[in-house]
Amino acid sequence: MKNSLLLVIAIVIGLVPAMAKNLSFETYKQKPKLVVVVVIDQFRSDFLTRYQKDFMPASSLGFNHMMNTGAYFAQSTYGILQAMTCPGHAMILTGSYPAQTGIQINEWYDIKNKKRAYCADDEEFVFSPRRLKTTTFGDEVKNIHPDSKVFTVSLKDRSAIFLGGHRADMALWYEDKPNEWVTTKYYNGGKTPAWLAKINAKQKTKGDLEAKNIEAALLGTEATMDLAITALTEEKLGQRNNSGPDILGLSMSNHDILGHKEGPDSSNLKKLTLFEDKMLAKLFNALKQKNLLDKTVVVLTADHGIPPAGDILRAGKIATGELDFLGVIKLANEKLTKELGSSGSTPWIEGVFASHVYLNRTRLAEKNIEAGRAQDLVKDIFAQLPGIYKVVTREQVLQAKIPYFDLRFPVENSFVSDVAGDLMLIPEPFFAQKTGATVNHMTNWNYDNSVPVIMWGPKWFQAGVYAGSRIVDIAPTLSFISGVLPPAKASGRVLDEAFKQKN
Ligand SMILES: [Zn+2]
């Protein structure tokens, strides 16, 4: 009696998964020949739900097809402090948090070398995945099946690079000058596939794919999908006699480029979403034409979301605003000088970058002042700025003493020692640091963290709408299905509730 009551309580509070499922051995033996990972940049989870009625019917093989016949995790979450392109793409196929991947934000202030750093920069190759401190699903596939091909494309270098991982055969991205698809020497010595020349020659006759207008967004989205489908055809992905799966990763960046300018609720963003529906159908039709549908797993997801535009929030009486740190930096510098003396030739606050405050650590060391003391001296000055929710200090993170229950998980998941500042300024929902963009995503709040995940592959996954997944679950699930090791630091779980019970 007592035991069964405990079991009921355990199920109710979620300690025991109520519906753990298994694959039959017959199904497990059949491995995918191809895994296609489709990322739509800034594709918040409601883009699929709000426009579902406007999408083409499932028979046309677009979004409705994936939602209807795939395992649709309608609201998956990142659970990180600052949702953006680099950490997002680095998480999708590593199954790991930024604290594990080393990719906390897109750009930061490198306090050791006193210069700007970028997630995909590389002194030797200009761009590479070498800042990524773990393996991806593709790396693990290639560790076991070196003849598998990993091929990625995106307008953004960082998106193609982190989907590809360390062992990618090729990652292609777009440069507006020279208006071409390019790579770096990290991949195949910089030699792009021969078939790319024709595509680039055609691109030369067209405009900038990254321009911030709907025409360029449609053009760029189609160009990205066409490039991916050409890679599928020319590289014979999933169509060779190799032992493991090939991987095709593509990230459609225009949704983000236009979203920053117009916000997620503009009629153009709807127009672009309906076009993405057509592009997904184009991909599925290509798979169908090559007889790959029953040998392929397709994953659809996004790297982060976005808040509504400021004018919509204000009209709806929801507090919003841009944080301007200039005034408080001055106050903080004055306080530190008063308490700690002269900062020398560099101010006490060296900079504020992406909501991280960097203190003059060189001077603190010279004067033998504990960093935690300096952080505590100015913490409240920043906390009082309107629009700031909480300020977390570096010392609080290092000692695992974050005093705010809702921030412990995202801050600890995201903290990378070489990247993070001395103070992390966490804005209230709908507030963000002033940038050039009209709308920006850079927070732990749900509008930035909630994205869809669809695992499609009717042989392995049971159609249905599911709850309770995290982005870090994608890579462990793909590894499990493919019979390769999970990425080295993967900390997600296998989404076994979506496994097909019988074939
Ligand atoms: Zn963005």
Describe the structure.
The chain is an alpha/beta fold and 503 residues long. It has 2 domains: 7-172 and 212-306 and 448-498, Alkaline Phosphatase, subunit A (3-Layer(aba) Sandwich), CATH 3.40.720.10; 321-433, Gyrase A, domain 2 (2-Layer Sandwich). It is built from 20 helices and 19 strands. The chain has a 9-stranded mixed sheet with strand order 9-8-7-10-1-11-18-2-19. Strands 13-14-16-15 form a 4-stranded antiparallel sheet. It has a two-stranded antiparallel sheet with strand order 3-4. The protein is globular, with a radius of gyration of 23 Å. The mean pLDDT is 95. Residues 42, 85, 256, 260, 441 line the site of zinc ion.
List the helices and strands and how they pair.
Layout (H helix, E strand, L loop, with lengths): L1 H11 L12 H5 L4 E7 L5 H5 L12 H7 L1 E7 L7 H8 L5 H4 L5 E4 L4 E4 L2 E2 L3 E2 L9 H8 L5 E5 L2 H8 L5 E6 L4 E3 L13 H8 L10 H21 L11 E7 L1 H9 L4 H23 L6 E7 L7 H6 L5 E3 L2 H15 L8 E5 L2 E4 L1 H6 L4 H13 L4 E6 H5 L6 H10 L8 E5 L3 E3 L12 H4 E7 L7 E3 L7 H9 L21
Parallel strand pairs: 1-10, 1-11, 2-19, 7-8, 7-10, 12-17
Antiparallel strand pairs: 2-18, 3-4, 5-6, 8-9, 11-18, 13-14, 14-16, 15-16
Helix pairs in contact: 5-8, 10-11, 10-12, 11-12, 14-16
Bound molecules: zinc ion.
Instruction: Please report the total strand number as a whole number.
Output: 19
Could you say which small molecules are bound to this protein? zinc ion
Strand content: 15-25%
Biggest beta-sheet profile: 9 strands, mixed
Spans where pLDDT lies below 50 across 5 or more residues: none
